[in-house]
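ok so for the tutorial part 2 we go from a plain amino acid sequence to predicted structure tokens. step 1 is just haveing the sequence, like this:
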Amino acid sequence: MAGRDPNRGRTIATVLGRRLGGELLRMREQCGLRQTHAAEALTASVAKVAKIERGQVPLRDPDVRALCHLYGEQDEAVLGRLLALAKADRERRRAKGWWNQYPELRSLVEYVALEDIATGVRTWQGAFVPGLLQTPDYARALAVGNASWDDPEEIERFVEAKIARQARLSDGNPLNLWVLVGEAALHQLVGSRDVMRTQLAHLAAVTELPNVKLQLIPFSAGSHPGMTGAFSIVSFAEPGAMDVVYMDTTSSTLWLESEEDAARHNATFERISRAGRALRDSTALIERIRKEL
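step 2 — the prediction. this is what the tokens look like for a chain of 293 residues:
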């Protein structure tokens, strides 16, 4: 039929929906209840409960309250966290953001969409400067070196989209960003020496933003927990309350959505940060490396 919405009737599992559904599933199983009990409490079908627990449908606040009541959850802090998570998921599903105009973002689309509604991001990266702190020339050189695009125009649109993300650092409700970067990333020659000098100068300048915290993990730190791989923790309330973990590899994108995964990566991030330099010392090291180029 002409004009029919191809997405109508489809259910799409979102990262936040899966996080919420997973917590509700855990609560139900701890009570020894079945999906039929949840369906009765919601005056809904068992099929809908299954979709809720798989993160495929948005959840209204009255339904969150009804399920928490059924599962005997009386902690107002837990209820508040789940309500906030449900709200964030609804906002994510309604969002028609600029990122949808950039197919060049590929697997980054979901991450950028969540970053747009997040309150904070904690990022550990040992190999290169994280995207929110990249200059256009540095981002372009990374994309060329990645060799994922044959069309130069695609590269330019990818760079444009990556730089557009940085508006979150200075908008009306700026993102709180805490970045841990390995010293190796500052020595790795991405593009020319001029590109790296400009990138390092930008890193030093961006630390002047009150919502940005940057720590370098120096070579002298020795072995530390971050050596196994990079990751980002995206928060939608106070850190630790509603976090999801994002990991990107050469072959796949991985979201870790459970409370246990979030807690484990937050603890790992804290341990890595303890191996890092203080903000002032980090800025001094950046400037020293820039002058040596």
